[in-house]
Amino acid sequence: MQQALDAVRPDEIGLASEWVCHDFAELLAKAGRLDEAITVLTPHLDREWILSTLVELTESQGCDERSWN
Protein backbone atom coordinates (compact mmCIF):
# COMPACT_ATOMS: atom_id res chain seq x y z
CA MET A 1 0.00 0.00 0.00
CA GLN A 2 2.81 2.43 0.87
CA GLN A 3 4.40 2.00 -2.57
CA ALA A 4 1.08 2.73 -4.25
CA LEU A 5 0.55 5.88 -2.18
CA ASP A 6 4.11 7.02 -2.87
CA ALA A 7 3.51 6.54 -6.59
CA VAL A 8 0.48 8.85 -6.61
CA ARG A 9 1.59 11.32 -3.91
CA PRO A 10 1.22 14.82 -5.37
CA ASP A 11 4.14 17.22 -5.46
CA GLU A 12 3.84 20.81 -4.21
CA ILE A 13 2.12 21.91 -7.43
CA GLY A 14 -0.33 19.01 -7.19
CA LEU A 15 -1.14 19.89 -3.59
CA ALA A 16 -2.31 23.29 -4.84
CA SER A 17 -5.10 21.57 -6.76
CA GLU A 18 -8.18 20.74 -4.75
CA TRP A 19 -9.01 17.94 -7.21
CA VAL A 20 -5.63 16.26 -6.79
CA CYS A 21 -5.87 16.62 -3.01
CA HIS A 22 -9.39 15.21 -3.02
CA ASP A 23 -8.34 12.07 -4.88
CA PHE A 24 -5.19 11.57 -2.81
CA ALA A 25 -7.08 12.12 0.46
CA GLU A 26 -9.61 9.47 -0.51
CA LEU A 27 -6.80 6.99 -1.13
CA LEU A 28 -5.19 7.86 2.20
CA ALA A 29 -8.48 7.37 4.03
CA LYS A 30 -9.02 3.98 2.36
CA ALA A 31 -5.52 3.01 3.52
CA GLY A 32 -6.48 3.89 7.10
CA ARG A 33 -4.41 7.07 7.15
CA LEU A 34 -7.19 9.48 8.04
CA ASP A 35 -5.00 12.08 9.77
CA GLU A 36 -2.92 12.45 6.61
CA ALA A 37 -6.07 12.70 4.50
CA ILE A 38 -7.31 15.51 6.73
CA THR A 39 -3.97 17.31 6.43
CA VAL A 40 -4.13 17.12 2.64
CA LEU A 41 -7.66 18.55 2.53
CA THR A 42 -7.30 21.25 5.19
CA PRO A 43 -5.79 23.95 2.91
CA HIS A 44 -8.84 23.66 0.63
CA LEU A 45 -11.63 23.90 3.20
CA ASP A 46 -12.77 27.20 1.70
CA ARG A 47 -14.33 25.06 -1.04
CA GLU A 48 -17.68 23.70 0.12
CA TRP A 49 -17.33 20.44 -1.81
CA ILE A 50 -13.97 19.75 -0.14
CA LEU A 51 -15.55 20.33 3.25
CA SER A 52 -18.28 17.86 2.29
CA THR A 53 -15.61 15.34 1.31
CA LEU A 54 -13.93 15.82 4.67
CA VAL A 55 -17.22 15.18 6.45
CA GLU A 56 -17.77 12.01 4.42
CA LEU A 57 -14.25 10.70 5.07
CA THR A 58 -14.43 11.34 8.81
CA GLU A 59 -18.01 10.18 9.36
CA SER A 60 -18.11 7.53 12.10
CA GLN A 61 -14.34 7.81 12.56
CA GLY A 62 -14.36 9.54 15.95
CA CYS A 63 -13.43 12.92 14.51
CA ASP A 64 -16.67 14.77 15.25
CA GLU A 65 -15.09 16.84 18.02
CA ARG A 66 -12.19 17.97 15.85
CA SER A 67 -11.92 21.63 14.81
CA TRP A 68 -11.28 22.15 11.10
CA ASN A 69 -10.06 25.74 11.42
Walkthrough of the structure:
With 69 residues, this protein is mainly alpha-helical. It is built from 5 helices and no strands. The protein is flat and about 25 Å long. The model has no long low-confidence stretch (mean pLDDT 85).
Instruction: Using the alpha-carbon principal axes, give the shape.
Output: flat
- Number of helical segments? 5
Biggest sheet statistics: none
Instruction: Please give the share of residues in helix.
Output: 55-70%
SS class? mainly alpha
SSE string, helices as H and strands as E: HHHHH
Amino- and carboxy-terminal Cα gap = 30 Å
Number of strands: 0
- Low-pLDDT segments: none
Radius of gyration of CA atoms, rounded to a whole number:
11 Å
Averaged pLDDT: 85
Strand content: under 5%
Outline the fold blueprint.
Elements: H1 2-8, H2 12-15, H3 18-30, H4 34-41, H5 48-58
Short note summarizing the structure:
The chain is mostly helical. It is built from 5 helices and no strands.
Quickly list its features.
69 residues; mainly alpha
